[in-house]
Amino acid sequence: MMRTYAGHSTAEKSNALYRGNLAKGQTGLSIAFDLPTQTGYDADHELARGEVGKVGVPIAHKGDMKALLDGIPLDKMNTSMTINATAAWLLALYIVTAEEQGVTPAQLQGTTQNDIIKEYLSRGTYAFPPGPSMRLIADMVAYTVEEVPKWNPINICSYHLQEAGATPVQEIAYAMSTAIAVLDEVRARVPQELMGRVFSRISFFVNAGVRFIEEHAKLRAMGKLWDELGRERYGVEDPKQRRFRYGVQVNSLGLTEAQPENNVQRIVLEALAVTLGRDARARALQLPAWNEALGLPRPWDQQWSLRLQQVLAFETDLLEYPDIFEGSIVMDGLVGELLEGARAEMAIVAEHGGAVEAVPYMKAALVESHRERIRRIESGELKVIGQNVYTETEPSPLTADNDGGIMTVDPEVEQHQKEAVAAWRAGRDQGAVDAALAEVARVAASDENIMPATLAAARAGATTGEWAQALRDAFGQYRGPTGVGEAAGAGVGDDAALEQIRDEVERVSEGLGRRLKILVGKPGLDGHSNGAEQIAVAARDAGMEVVYEGIRLTPAQIAASALQEGVHVVGLSILSGSHRELIPSVLEALSAAGIGDVPVVVGGIIPPADERELLAAGVAAVYTPKDFDITRIMHAIVALVADRNGVSASA
Amino acid sequence: MNGGELGARLRDGDLSAAPAVLNLVESRAPRDQAAIAELLASIAPAALGGEAPAHVVGITGPPGAGKSTLLSALLHGWRERGRTVAVLAVDPSSKRSGGALLGDRARIEFDPADHGVFIRSMAAGERLGGLAPATRAAAHALAAAFDVVVIETVGVGQSETEIADVADTVAVVVQPGSGDALQFIKSGIMEIPDVLIVTKADLGQVAVRARRDLHAALRSLGARETAVVAVSSLPPAQGIDRLLDALDAHRAATDVPARRLSARRLHALADFVEEHGARGLRALGGRRAAEKWLAAQAPGLDVPSLEQALAERAAAAGGGAPPA
């Protein structure tokens, strides 16, 4: 099956995009929701500012879902929804929309991502605490196995673990541990004879990096482990039900902003990792666009990715042979090594009490792995063509004329969606909505399955924000572990570069009178915290006091913290493309708090034109993926603070 | 920066002075030391006409015991009772780099528009297992303006003692099933706290058993006054009101002026020893003589003034130069 992950702006525009892609030969839908929808807020919530329609489509109610899928036959469609914390709600909207098309739940095919563990570990779009979140997932699995039997209620994502820095062993172990946590929870609520069917509905979403031989071995190892788990832990007899089914989005972490055309060959090689051997071949493949590190891809960029797949599938002989690694000693050896490592790591997670309890442990382990990866790139040990080696380049015609070659979202979209949500609320039977939400709240506090009440609320016309708020009230707010406190510091073999930066921090701190203090945080709803975490850990290792505020902050929160903490510099990270709205708001909030003189540095996927605007608005420095050398960023920050406070950083 | 002015703002209850006060007391720059002394003298009991009215609460416990979640719930409770709250969240520093990750703030829920709440993260600095050097000074200063000052530290068995010398009430947080606190209390590693908080009461039987065990241990040590309160910070939060009452009750039953006075004298002597060493102490005629002399000084003096007086006395006795 071939799909591209898509959705943006409004339900209507995304609908047109989907129809266009289906006409070009795409055979399924992959829906990207915007961050407010993913985290359970309507467009008019304070936290939604700047995020509406940015990384996906805003879906606030059944009317939006109907517009999104207008004219697309849901009985024939295989739909993948990248939705986690609010998966139960979006599935309910999908079921209700299908009903209105005359399609029964039993006919629906597709996948809800629904893997909350990796949200705590990597992606950050959780809404509720781990316990209640796992309960929602188990409710969905128990519901779909009976009522929507062709649906994959959960798609366990090792993908995001690799993006967060996971080694192949960590990727395997944490994904399998997550599956165990879910299956154990479901086992408590369905009869044993259904476990085979439950097991067979669990699918995976994996990553493939450019080391494509090892990556292929990783997938073979996962298949083996999965089969073993089904047989031994859950007593699944039927081998077909134990088959390891997975989809793939190949690696984005390794895609570079420098010489972005090289990403095309990286993507092709990564695609080979998941297609080479038939015994471990992906069932669905998504390829990122070549310019993803620059910003939101345009339709033409996505078409290129689809064509890459089509060349592999239809021009090459890739799909013509049985498993080409059968009997390979080298491949078997690689698989064996990975299995051994993964089993050991799974045992550690089990000792922590399972994946839910082990979230802080796994998070810290990932932050450390990612830190190590960055260290290897900085030192040149890990070669990245065009970034830390062979950096000389001719001018690129691909990015020459159009300022980075990316698509931007019209800021009008947010206003439009805010008004549309208000109009929707005004036009519905409020009494019915209130009653339905009260029922959701009641069920949330009980141990009944959440799905029937959720479906009723969807039919009554409740909104995403209302449904999620009912659950937030019942379950409580939650902030995930950051992993940075637990992550080990720089090793004993501290190199000269580290000593040098520490000396600088020491000197500037002497001049300031107290230790250089930095606030690191992420405004808005974007939960991709890897960058912010790496900056926080590096700043601590450099000797700074680091107030790490984590994700999902409003400009007012950032300003209040900066003031109360007395920081010398503020570092913000944004990857969702909402920097144009949020960064100026933070600057205003800092000025309003009387600390407009505290310098602000920004990191993220920020196109050159926006960079210029941010600098003009008063941002002291902007860092993008091409600034991969964190040590250099640290030097710049120390120099900035020294300069602003009239002290000297040099000896 | 003018320390006297900042002190005056605190005395007037101007909570917006807090960030500047912290920036000042954290400074180790020689140029700021006079201002710090001025600030502390201006909010000393002698200047206030009595002890600062705030309730200084120490909250400590091992990592993962649920301190931050509990603190969020407590903040909310105090605000509902109309009290302003300052939190000093102390985190350890790295020995090698001197750097520190101050992560607690991220886990404490608060409304940025609420000016009655102030949260400051502080690195513990070089002091082993104890309080940041500036934490004590900050607590004294903030107590002049806020209704409640909370000092939050990590650890079991190390930091309670130091916290006890600053706080009117020391609460230790334990999570059911860990058993650590129980062991530490029995073995005498940990001082007996004023209030013991058992978190995660939603765990049911385990929490009930933990509470019972702690009660029994405290009784066997003769510490019948120590309140043991079970709380659950997850909604629906339980026990928070009871905990607030227990903290209030402890303070009401405590001779706060006496406790703070003895703490100030203790700190002055500790600071003196840190500065002048054993030789300085000998010049004062030994620890017991120094303590006796301190006990005869005016009760309203702040710590730096007392330390200064000790230094002058030692210098007069020829045992070390007075500080510049």
TrEMBL record, chain B:
Domain of life: Bacteria
Domain called AAA+ ATPase: residue spans: 53-262
Keywords: Chaperone, GTP-binding, Hydrolase, Nucleotide-binding
Pfam families, alphabetized: MeaB
Protein name as it appears in the record: GTP-binding protein
Native source organism of the sequence: Conexibacter stalactiti
Upper taxonomic lineage: Bacteria, Bacillati, Actinomycetota, Thermoleophilia, Solirubrobacterales
